[in-house]
Amino acid sequence: DAGEGGPYTMEDFKRAVADTEKELGMLQQEIETRFFDVASLIFSAQLLMLRDPSFLGQMEDLVRRGEDPFRAIRSVTRSYAERFDRMSNAYIREKRYDVMDVGRRLLENLTGRCERGVHLGNKIVIARELLPSDAMKMGSRDVSGIVLLSGGVTSHLAVLARSLNIPL
């Protein structure tokens, strides 16, 4: 049984990886162009993660063994996020959001489904957790502020919110 509208093939998986790599490169470039600061390193780190032979290799191995690409992406992403959750260093634990962000992008590019634009102008967003790309979306939608129930001042979301001048 395939996930979210599958079954998908190895070719679909590779297309999703290529599309995700392009998106992350564009986000990195947009941040560098707009802000010239450390925030662009967030998407550089996500690009490196996407190119990591272990991370991507585990997904490819599952697909080669007959697993649907949707399930392979979801399984490996969850596994990596859980590993980061177990780290004792708070900064390293925050990397789980990057893993989840890359995984979500892969799934969106695989399925062709992405979140619809919601009008957030002049509103305050309250969320349990957000991913770095969520901050980018909010920056372009004139969000008035973010109330976040997790993460710290050094989280990638906090760095991006500061760069985008979004009160957090």
What does this entry look like structurally?
This protein has 168 residues and is mainly alpha-helical. The chain has 8 helices and 2 strands; from the N terminus they run ααααααβαβα. Strands 1-2 form a two-stranded parallel sheet. Helix 7 (132-140) links the parallel strand 1 (124-127) and strand 2 (145-148). Helix 7 packs parallel to helix 8 (156-163). The longest helix is centred in the first third of the chain and has 26 residues, at 10-35. It starts with 9 loop residues before the first helix and ends in a 5-residue tail after the last helix. The model has no long low-confidence stretch (mean pLDDT 83).
Short description:
This protein is mainly alpha-helical and 168 residues long.
Q: Roughly what is the average pLDDT, rounded to an integer? A: 83
**Unreliable stretches:** none
Biggest sheet layout: 2 strands, parallel
Share in β-strands: under 5%
| CA-based gyration radius | 16 Å
The end-to-end span amounts to 41 Å
Overall shape: it is: globular
Helix content: 55-70%
Strand neighbour order, sheet with most strands? 1-2
Task: State the order of secondary-structure elements, H for helix, E for strand.
Answer: HHHHHHEHEH
- Helical run tally: 8
Structural class per helix/strand content?
mainly alpha
User: How many E-type strands?
Assistant: 2
Helix/strand layout:
Elements: H1 10-35, H2 40-51, H3 53-64, H4 69-85, H5 90-93, H6 95-111, E1 124-127, H7 132-140, E2 145-148, H8 156-163
Parallel strand pairs: 1-2
Helix pairs in contact: 1-2, 1-6, 2-6, 3-4, 4-6, 7-8
